[in-house]
Amino acid sequence: MECAERYSGGVVNHSSFGGAYAGRYDVIVAGLGTAGAIAAITAARQGLKVLGVERLHGMGGTGTAGAVWSYYYGSRGGISEPLDEQVLTLAAGCFTPSQGVNGEAKMIVMEQEVIQLGADLRYESTITRVLRRGKRVCGIEWISPEGRFTADSEVVIDCTGDAHVCAHAGAGMYCGRKMDGQLQPFSNVWLQLENGQVNCRHTDSGYADPGDALALSQAILTSATVSTHLKDTYTERDRWLRLAPLTGIREGRLIEGEAQVTLECVLNDIHTTEPLYYAYAHVDLHSKDTAFESEVLQKWTVACSMWGHKLSVPVPLGALIPRGMEGLLVAGRCLAVDHDLATCVRMKRDMQKAGEAAAYAAYLSITRKVPLREVPYPELSALLTATGCLQASGHNTGPAWLGQSETIREGMSSAHPGLSIWSAVRMGGSIQAALRAWMTQVPESDLSKHSAFALALLGDASSAPVLRKLARVKDPFVPQTRLVHKRSHGRGYSAILLLGLLADKDAADLLYTLLEEPVEAFPNPDASEASETPAEVHFQYVSFAVAALARIGDRHSDTRSPTAEAYCKLLHRKDLGFEVALPGAPHIPYDMLPKIRLCIEQTILRWDIGPLSWR
Predict the structure, then answer these.
(1) Angle at the Cα of 140 (from 138 to 141), degrees rounded to 5?
(2) Concatenated DSSP letters of 315-354
(3) 595 membership: H or E segment, kind and range
(4) Which of the chain's termini has less CB crowding within 10 Å, N or C?
């Protein structure tokens, strides 16, 4: 029986659920982690009757149980700032000195705040069902050690991280990248005592879908015993304390919202005029198999090596509202963004702001008696501005795009050309003639090569001969980003990406040859490169060649049969091995050959060229 059938005149028949009725609330906050804790506090401060339901034993999520005590980007402001000041004061008086905002103290401060405001908390509680009337969410059911319970509400804020309430409600959502659904790697965080101070350390520990309970459990068990924290010996300067009980999940389900925010829109300045807050970070992609990511992500992080350049992303209310649903909001990393942008908008400070914004939207919806999507923006923005949750975008700005051709020319002649390349792409046809002239003036110069990159990104095939040469000689140049974090990509295989985007048929034979060459034929990695070993550089060349040949074949059907044969030879090579480690975690190698095989299989099936020995 559907939940929607258990209503009579808008009243839930709770006895049909078999659980105890816990009461009626203005707002139910499902999940009291990074976003949910702030959502519950904000809603209670507005005088709303609040119920918080959490599967763990305390508030704060990643910033407390997850042991991520420091902030990595995100924009300042909102009610979390004075709360953090209270945490620092408490920690200074009774805790061992630590980096960042002490998570144990933060849990205490937030719990004291929300309880003094009169909110009800239910820990060790798991949501099992959503109460609905049509498309309107009216409450939840949960189980705990005390039994099964239900409660009604005007608004439910889903802060579970993986949109569990939205899933129960039947909201639209998607997960991972297009090719294989792969999510960002998760991390393990541990605490250790270093010279008398508690510090947090982490390592990327593998891939797992948080929606797959069995796979996630196995990943947690395996990653809990790696050598980063379980060492043979420890020194007095380096004492291991504990592994965080909450795994560092970076990405899970993403909702389909009333407004969808994508990386492509952000890079093209297509923004909302009614932001709740500005997320601020770079596209923090942790995977190294970028050849299988989206075209826009490849252009940004590979062709331009712009991984580390920060973006300021205005987040609208529609990104917190599941499409077609009523009475339901989300706050946290399951916002209505695409897989490409999810890596940018998930930072702790910004997730705390999402929780605050959701609570204000719920408050106005309830008190003004209007649907969430009709909450008056002037009133909402006034509340957000008063706490600093919403500040002018100039507070944290993204790249300052270049608009003068001579400035762009200077940048393209340098060791850090990314911003100039993308700025040229944004200028489009107005700079195309200049790019062609620069490309031919001094053919062996950085200016010539980077002009070819910009032209290729504009779809100009005149760049193909230069790109073919860069791929043929396996140009080892790696852009310098002027950043502490450097995950740039070699010019040789970046050129292969661009040849694929151009569907350059004349590059096919060159790419076939690359697929046959041994690892020794490829350049060693640069210190600033995303790849850390010769085998990983080899993987980049092969994976981008495989993907480029697929794009060429999509456009030129006469290349499909020879490409399929080249694929077959590749997969039957006895010396083939692609051990690729996650960034900074050489102890956890991943065999990327299955990814290459999957890309090939999908390509062959798409072309439908008949049976071959490629399997």
Answers:
(1) 145
(2) EEGGGGSBTT-BSEEE-STTSSB-HHHHTTS--HHHHHHH
(3) helix 593-607
(4) N
What the block records as the tokens of 534 is: 């010769």
Instruction: Give the confidence band of 76 by pLDDT, cuts at 50, 70, 90.
Output: very high
- Determine the Cα–Cα distance for residues 557 and 243; give it in Å rounded to an integer: 53
Taking the chain, what is the end-to-end CA distance rounded to the nearest angstrom?
Answer: 46
Q: Is the dihedral of CA 329, 34, 207, 218 positive or negative?
A: negative
- The packing angle between helices 508-516 and 534-555, to 10°, is 150
pLDDT higher than threshold 70 for residue 15: no
> Given a cut of 70, is residue 396 above it in pLDDT?
no
Q: What is the pLDDT of residues 167-200, one digit of tens each?
A: 999 999 999 999 999 999 999 899 999 888 999 9
DSSP run (H or E) holding 142? strand 136-144
pLDDT band for position 35 (cuts 50, 70, 90) = very high
Separation CA 609–CA 605 (nearest Å) = 8
Calculate what percentage of the chain has a pLDDT beyond 70: 94
- In angstroms, the Cα distances linking 541 to 96, 397, 488, 496, 578 are 49, 34, 14, 8, 11
CA 545, 548, 551: angle at the middle one, nearest 5? Answer: 155
Residue 483 confidence (pLDDT) above 70:
no
pLDDT band at 574 (very low <50, low <70, confident <90, very high): confident
- What span, in angstroms and rounded, lies between the C-alpha atoms of 338 and 254? 7
Counting every residue, how long is the chain?
A: 615
Angle between helices 446-457 and 464-472 (to 10 degrees): 120
Helix, strand, coil fractions of the chain, as percent rounded to 5 = 45, 20, 35
Name 363's Cβ contacts closer than 8 Å, sequence gap at least 6: 43, 46, 48, 383
242: β partners: 191
394's tokens: 């100039």
φ/ψ (deg, to 5) at 578: -125, 80
- Cβ count within 10 A of residue 310: 17
DSSP letters along 183-252, please?
-PPEEEEEEEEETTEEEEEEEEEE---TT-HHHHHHHHHHHTT-TTTS-S--BTTBEEEEE-SS-B----
CB neighbourhood size of 233 (10 A): 5
| Dist. CA 247–CA 516, nearest whole Å | 40
Q: Of 283, 304, 362, give the one whose Cα is nearest residue 40.
A: 362
